[in-house]
Every structure is written in structure tokens, then in C-alpha cells.
Amino acid sequence: MRDLPARLPKRLALLALSLFFVVGGANHFLNPDFYVGMMPPYLPAHSALVSVSGVFEIVGGLAVLAPGVRSLAGWGLIALLVAVFPANLYMALNPDLFPITSAVALYVRLPFQVLFIAWAYWATRPEGSP
To answer: Would you give the distance in Å from CA 66 to the centre of its chain?
Structure first.
């Protein structure tokens, strides 16, 4: 019980990570047109890819809460973040297609992908890991 304060930040980060991905994944099904619009034209089956990425976000977000698969789920979320980066880059390179968001905001959000990767990595490492 004495080490709870030391573990609390990591546990809160893990819960927030889970919520972030579960809500984000659910949003793929609640607002699919938004995500389909982000898809670069060179990718096939936009609707299917949006659904698949939504499922993986929800599954990964829930799986990080299970200690036995937490590390694997973390790596899965990291892979997902890398996989969706081209869509974020496509948006930044084509701001005229996304007038609801400023061009600056589209570029500013790109580095956040690295922060999300770091968050997923740190929060899903075994207890006692840095």
C-alpha cells in the first residue's frame, strides 16, 4: 500500500490511455464520415479501414487494462498510431480539404503522435520499468 503513491501516476496514465482509445475508437462508428474524409486517396476501402482502426482502438484501449496482455496491447496501440500517421500527414499537406481546422492546427497535431506513442509505451510497461 505504501508504494501506491509512486504507482499512481502510471495507473492514472494507463486509465486515461484506455479511455482515450476506447472513446476514439467508438467515435469511428459514431462519426465515420469524419474519419473517411481523412483517408489519403491512395488507400483503398476507406470505410473498411476506418472500421478496422476503430475496432483496434477499442480492443487496444480495453486490453491495456488486462495485466497479462498490457505490454502487447501497448505495442499494438503504438503500431496503430504509426499506421494512422499518414492520414494525419495527408490532412496537414492538404489543409484546403479540411477548412474546419486551421492549417497551423493540422501541423501542430503531428508531433502529438510522438507524444501519444511515448504515452502508450510508458503506461503499458511492466511495474518497475522506467
So the answer is: 18
